[in-house]
Amino acid sequence: MLRFTKEFTLQEPIPEEGIAKALEVLQSGRLHRYNAHGTEPTFTDQLEERFAAYMGKPWCLACASCGSALHLALRSAGVRRGDKVLCNAYTLAPVPGAIHHAEAEPVLVEINEDTTMDCADLERKAQASGARFLLLSHMRGHISDMDKVLEICAKYHLTLIEDCAHTMGARWKGVLSGSFGKAACFSTQTYKHMNSGEGGLLVSDDPELMARAIIYSGSYMLYGMHRSRPPQEVFDQIRLETPNYSCRMDNLRAALLLPQLADLDRQCARWNTLYAAMENGLRALPGVRLLHRDPHETFVGSSIQFSLPDLDSQAIQTFLKLAAERGVDIKWFGNQKPVGFTSDYTTWHYMPSIPDLPQTRRVLATLCDMRLPLTFTADDCTLICAILGEVLAELPRS
Ligand SMILES: *Cc1c(COP(=O)(O)O)cnc(C)c1O
Question: Nearest residue CA, atom 14 of ligand 1?
């Protein structure tokens, strides 16, 4: 019996340069982003300026997490209590959580077979709900048909906010994910494309949205210290009407992220090499169906999803158990019980109502998910696929 012994949750170490910068912060004691030395830019300032430049946006705000950045983006874009926010039903819990945090109501939209947003359902729901906002989550790095999404946003006057937690460095028709909405949010949580433990980055080219986000994030009256920000006049108009939600990033995390940002595109290419190896191996397995990927999408393969369309939920649970016994850790989006990081929209009981989304439920029922940490090699992918082949062959046939 083959066995895999590496951990699916093991990331690479923080680069030496990040550790050196972090030590510098620790030795200085200047961890708080506003604890600057004279007018010298802090690591948080540097990170914001460099990420904005990477994204081709005028401004970036570093936050405590992507979930908090999403909350700030929604509020700053004008979401008010009771507003409806369209959102794909297949996403991670912090996304509906951010909508709830903004006192708004999610209107969940069906997904396609390839897990991207079903634009026909988006249009129906935009029309029926009268929502003015769309929070589009590029869940697990799958980018929806952005031409259609933008067309619907224009037609129904929807303000688009992008959740790019899994698309940092990814592109649609050559344009970076996060360039399409009025604001976009990224995660630097350990399992995303840069690792500072926790962290989020918000980008926008809308001056008022950005000024509000900076004040909401907890800038007190120190927003003038930000280097990546709209002009002072924009703040003057809104500074007293914008509460402080205290969810800043600190210099220690920014120190860890600076060298990772410089290396981001190379890391994305490494993920895609792993992804290709895993995809090739999975493609050869009977009963495994890979998701279609739109040729316009340049994704970052930091995880891989596949479907087991011939198996019922009992058989899938056996598959997961046998795989786990051989060291292969697979997640399943069809699980009726929320497990670990994964929860299904039907378990978000705090929503005012839980819609019936038969297409989404059907797609998720057989959908599996595997992390591809950069500590894996192409040979690891080959071994994992061999193990999954063994497991599939052992499954009792009904
Ligand atoms: C991880 C993730 C988030 C939230 O990121 P945090 O930084 O952990 O708050 C949001 N959306 C998606 C799709 C994610 O995978």
Answer: 165
User: What pTM was computed for the model?
Assistant: 0.97
The pLDDT of residue 398 is: 58
Q: What is the pLDDT of residues 127-168, one digit of tens each?
A: 999 999 999 999 999 999 999 999 999 999 999 999 999 999
Determine if residue 38 is left, alpha or beta; phi over 0 gives left, psi from -120 to 50 gives alpha, anything else beta: left
Q: Ligand 1 centre and the CA of 66: distance in Å?
A: 6
> What residues does ligand 1 touch, defined as CB less than 6 Å away?
65-67, 91-92, 94-95, 137, 139, 163, 165-166, 187, 189, 200
Pair of tokens at residue 254: 């920014």
Strand 200-204 vs strand 105-109: parallel, antiparallel, or unpaired?
Answer: unpaired
**Structural tokens at position 332:** 């399943």
Torsion of CA 101, 106, 111, 114, to 10 degrees: -10
Q: Give the nearest ligand 1 atom to 91 CA.
A: 13
369/305 Cα distance (integer angstroms): 4
- For a mutational test of ligand 1's pocket, the pick from 11, 68, 71, 95, i.e. the residue with the most ligand atoms closer than 8 A to its C-beta, is 95
For residue 252, the one-letter residue type is: L
Cα–Cα dist 167/186, whole Å: 8
Residues, the chain: 398
Minimal-distance CA residue to ligand 1 atom 2: 165
Distance CA 360, CA 377 (A): 33
